[in-house]
Amino acid sequence: MTVLTSARRILLLLGLPAVLFAAWWFATAGSTDVYVPPLSVILGKFGEVWTADRLASDVLPSLLRLTAGYLLAVVVGIGLGLLIGTHRVVRDVLEPVLELFRAIPPPVLVPVIMLFAGIGDTMKVIVVASGCVWPILLNTVEGVRAVDEVLGDTCRSYGITGPARLWHLVLRSASPQIVTGMRQSLSIGIILMVISEMFAASNGLGFTIVQFQRTFAIPEMWSGVLLLGLLGFALSLLFRLAETRVLAWYHGLRRAQRNT
Questions:
Q1: Tell me: domain 34-259, CATH 1.10.3720.10, correct?
Q2: C-beta separation of 177 from 141 below 8 A
Q3: d(CA 144, CA 158)
Q4: What is the DSSP string of 85-114?
Q5: Distance between start and end Cα atoms, the chain
Q6: 80: CB partners within 8 A, 6+ apart
Q7: What is the per-residue pLDDT across 122-175, written as a single tens digit (0 to 9) for each?
Q8: What is the chain's Cα-based Rg?
Q9: pTM to 2 decimals?
Q10: What is the Cα–Cα distance from 79 to 67, expressed in whole angstroms?
């Protein structure tokens, strides 16, 4: 039963990507359009372009910037979300300002961030963090506000207050929504990583794709887009594995509730 379940999950996970990949292959087979080369040509260029040296010089810096910006967003989003969610006065004061900044698309802030942070890695990390922080922050606030009042009263009755209450009750109760916000932020971070590297960069995945486009190396450009998609897919899988371990108690509780 376990083997069949695992096989079914793998089929569901890879089925649609395989269909889309096959459709791309047959739709572009024999294409003479310079802007839409056959997938076979793109795959041939993929192996030529993305060598170990290229991965080290362009993809690795992109991943490091993404990781730094994402972790910064996680720390700021969860920390500020806990503060806002647990203090009504703070929430009332900050809510108008947060709604204002949340409505501003992060790519629009790139020129502004460049004025203060320069054009180096710091700018790119801040750009990633500025977009990733909102789903984490908002989900943390909602998760904290949704903490069961009965459990809160129980903690007070047993004298569980301060950091112990925050760690064992608030964070644990809000963790499913916090993880949801982190999952949403991951895809946003990948997009902003590429956008930030299109501005005054000398390396990175976004920079390389733009350089291919500007020199009309179209198959090479498409190979970079394909690599970006594969990278997003791999990061999503890694996040799902981490989520399964961190929220094992939550998923187990939901399965038990469905079976009753």
A1: yes
A2: no
A3: 20
A4: HH-HHHHHHHHHHHHHHHTS-GGGGHHHHH
A5: 20
A6: 137, 140
A7: 999 999 999 999 999 999 999 998 887 887 778 888 777 778 888 888 888 889
A8: 22
A9: 0.89
A10: 18
